[in-house]
Specification:
The structure is a homodimer. The first copy, chain A, is an alpha/beta fold. The first copy, chain A, has two domains: 152 residues, Medium-chain alcohol dehydrogenases, catalytic domain (Quinone Oxidoreductase, Chain A, domain 1, Alpha-Beta Complex); 150 residues, NAD(P)-binding Rossmann-like Domain (Rossmann fold), CATH 3.40.50.720. Helices cover 27% and strands 26% of the residues of chain A. Chain A contains ten helices and 15 strands. In chain A, strands 3, 4, 5, 6, 7, 14 and 15 form a seven-stranded mixed β-sheet that branches. In chain A, strands 10-9-8-11-12-13 form a six-stranded parallel β-sheet, with helices on both faces. A two-stranded antiparallel sheet of chain A has the order 1-2. In chain A, helix 6 links the parallel strand 11 and strand 12. In chain A, helix 2 crosses helix 9. The longest helix of chain A is centred in the middle third of the chain and has 14 residues. The two termini of chain A are 20 Å apart. Chains A and B meet through helix 8 and strand 13 of A and helix 8 and strand 13 of B. Strand 13 of chain A pairs antiparallel with strand 13 of chain B, so a sheet runs across the interface.
């Protein structure tokens, strides 16, 4: 067991509003020799996810990310050194580690990947946590069927696009909401949604009433705030809403309010909070379902890949500006 | 078919905040001869309900109550004159009519009462709309069982006390929230709840954590506002909440906010809007269930009865101040 040197991306300060590249720094550090049960991983893909912004704001279930700490996210990589009998150098694994050229991870927290011909980066997107989030929301909470019209926001992202395509596979009609004509075109032409509303150029309530005069029956919410209220008050009575993400809150110190009780009662709606950590037991089902759709050519995904560790801060800034398009990843040459 | 003279309670002006007696007036009016399909009813009991305050504020699903209009509520009464072949003078009926000595009602909107030995006034309380509201919330939305701890606010009222006792009959543990020691004592000693928190003298969150360290699994909400948020953030994960009433909003021009999406997600909660009008098809089931519990001496109810038509405004004011105790009724001598 030897020590190792690596570059590492750290948080310099808690971002104010939308993060900037200056909120991060890239530093050289020495990693100590591995302890029993640890392995060294060379990441090939880092996962950039909006919840990291909430960790920086000290208000995420999974813990805080404080100034001076390395950014930890899910990643895919290759084991370079192992002090655990279950894992050996050369294996491809996924788990949580630092944004770095090399990172030390407990073997217990890693899973080996066997996606056959599918790219390992999918373990961070539609076959990973975003896929599991979508799968739990569709199969456990919303349960759409042929009579349902499901709306999903952030529809070009890995969660939203998976929600929509899983609902399509169950026979539902699916309408996306995304920002900009390029994303909306992809959502309809590649992911196969019935329609996609561009929240940058269209009035959502007006467009929704045109598309679904009787109102949608289901909504998978990645945004919160005013959008959530707008959809709720335009839903068919007895609609179901999965609350999953609060993009409206991520860059803000104030927390956007939820719908009024009067609005929830008036809509006879059911709102359900979704936390992906509760659904780890569904991961194998999710992978077989989504991989099956991919192999049947009934599933589109999109990745937004930046090259090189040093690009991670700017890629995260673009993600939090909503300027990414697809699952945001950083690729590191191994 | 003849004309008739009656006194009638009218709204004089839209109340500001908690209503006052001066918001109402008692006027003498002449009622025209009955049209086909109409009957004349002499009310024996008027139902006073919080939703009437929302009608006055022009924000209730069931319609508005404007200055100059007679107050219309559910009532029980005796038919004095009928122009419909299905109903005849002397029958006891329930339906919606004016706060008056005599009121004209369409026969289609009336139901005849046959409660056996039980008092007809129960048609306005635990065997009427409040009972149906509670029954729908318990049997269709919350579905408590022996593993559940259910909390209900406004626990001494007809909805809250019925919710709790139906949940007890299903084996759940039930905790009430009510205002003042007298109501709390009744909720525990007569209605049989495990405990009742006095929101006037106790800190609800502290008391709730003492009573249920793991958090309640269900909440039937008659209040909204801060109380709803307090219960939500102290619930067991994956709890269920029925949203039924918004006492916090009734006397206010501003509408109290709901829980934050972040709080709903963090609690993994399910919130469900309940509107009693959707559950008319359950009325017979509700009556047989509640009447069965009453006959088995497993069900307590309480009525807060004022005497005489002219007492209706002051009784409504007391209701909206939370100074009533039990189902608020006005009794009219027939």
């Amino acid at each position: 067991m030897t020590t190792a040197a690596t570059r590492q991306i750290r948080l310099v300060r808690t971002p104010a509003g939308i993060p900037t590249e200056e909120d991060f720094e890239c530093v050289a550090v020495a990693l100590p020799a591995l302890e029993p049960g640890q392995v060294r991983v060379a990441p090939t893909f880092l996962s950039l996810d909006p919840y990291l912004r909430l960790q920086m704001a000290k208000r995420h279930l999974s813990g805080n990310l404080l100034p001076g700490q390395p950014v930890i996210s899910e990643l895919v990589g290759t084991i370079t050194e192992s002090n655990d009998p279950r894992l050996e150098p050369g294996q491809t694994v996924a788990g949580f580690g630092a944004w770095a050229d090399l990172t030390t991870i407990a073997a217990d927290g890693l899973r080996t990947l066997d996606f056959g011909a599918l790219p390992p980066s999918l373990a961070l997107g539609v076959l990973g946590m975003p896929g599991l989030t979508a799968y739990a929301g569709v199969s456990e909470l919303l349960k759409p069927g042929p009579d349902d019209v499901l709306v999903v926001s952030a529809a070009a992202g890995p969660v939203g696009s998976t929600v929509g395509q899983l609902a399509l596979a169950r026979g539902a009609t699916v309408i996306g909401i995304a920002g900009g004509p390029e994303k909306c075109r992809w959502v309809v032409e590649e992911a196969g949604f019935s329609a996609c509303i561009d929240h940058r150029s269209e009035d959502i309530a007006t467009r929704l009433r045109e598309l679904v005069p009787q109102g949608p029956s289901q909504y998978f919410d990645n945004v919160g705030g005013e959008l959530l209220r707008t959809i709720l008050v335009n839903m068919k009575p007895h609609g179901r809403i999965a609350l999953c993400g609060i993009m409206d809150d991520y860059n803000s110190d104030t927390r956007s309010p939820g719908p009024l009780p009067l609005e929830i009662i008036g809509a006879r709606a059911t709102l359900m909070g979704l936390v992906v950590y509760d659904y780890e037991h569904l991961r194998a089902d999710m992978i077989s379902t989504v991989a099956g759709l991919i192999e049947a050519k009934k599933f589109a995904w999109r990745e937004d890949v930046s090259e090189g560790l040093e690009s991670a801060p700017s890629a995260f800034v673009r993600l939090m500006q909503g300027r990414n398009f697809g699952k945001t990843l950083v690729h590191l040459k191994s």
